[in-house]
Design a protein that fits this description.
The chain is mostly beta strands and 212 residues long. It has two domains: 6-83 and 181-209, no CATH class; 101-179, no CATH class. Helix content is 10%, strand content 34%. A hairpin with a 6-residue loop joins β9 and β10 (126-129). The protein starts with 5 loop residues before the first strand and ends with a strand. Residues 7-211 form the DUF2460 domain. This is TIGR02217 family protein.
């Protein structure tokens, strides 16, 4: 039997439109005898999950899903998922720019910077690691000056950006990019009711984000 692996292939985009899903947090809430609450975040990072079922509209869609599911051996192998509501460094509807996200600050020696996307600003901004950038979409700037594509390399499998030359101490390193979410199927079984498919209804088919 082959070992579990990550397949660098994106779930068919036409089948992800119409899906449902988003981020999940795990929070422990304890109500004290006084009625006061104590709250503790159990997860450092949110975890996204999606449901493919609502996106399937025809027998051809179901056939494409089954072929993809079988090649992944169900939940055994991970794959890329495009979150149609959150897949870029820029604000919704805006063009990607090299200054979209701060990914590091130069110290005169470091050349490798992991991609990240920050949510929020004033109170408790959340920095999300981006590990599956879309190849060819990453733009990088140092101290506000965009670098030529030949001046850096991007590992599309990990999200690590490596510059040819280390930025000067204190120089902001920023990036713009599109990205996918690393996921796997969250079920070993797909059950299809052909009458339901014809009526535009398919059972839940869960997909869940892979966390390291």
């Amino acid at each position: 039997m082959s070992m579990p692996a990550f397949h660098e292939v994106r779930f068919p985009l036409r089948l992800s439109y119409g899906s449902r899903g988003g981020p999940e947090r795990r929070t422990e809430i304890v109500t004290l005898g006084s009625g006061d609450e104590e709250r503790n975040s159990l997860w450092r990072h949110s975890r996204r999950s999606y449901n493919v079922g609502p996106a399937l509209r025809s027998a051809a869609d179901v056939a494409a899903l089954i072929a993809f599911f079988e090649e992944r051996r169900g939940p055994l192998h991970g794959f890329r998922w495009c979150d149609t509501f959150d897949h870029a460094s820029a604000a919704a509807g805006a063009e990607i720019g090299p200054g979209d996200q701060l990914i590091g600050t130069g110290d005169g020696g470091t050349v490798a910077f992991p991609l990240a996307k920050t949510y929020g600003a004033a109170f408790a901004p959340y920095r999300r690691p981006i590990v599956k950038p879309v190849a060819g979409t990453v733009r990088v700037a140092v101290a506000g000056v965009e670098l030529a594509a030949s001046a850096f390399a991007v590992d599309a499998a990990t999200g690590l950006v490596t510059l040819q030359a280390p930025p000067a101490a204190g120089a902001a390193v920023t990036a713009g990019f599109r990205f996918d979410v690393p996921v796997r199927f969250a079920t070993d079984r797909i059950e299809v009711d052909h009458q339901a498919v014809q009526a535009g209804m398919v059972a839940d088919i869960p997909v869940i984000e892979l966390r390291r």
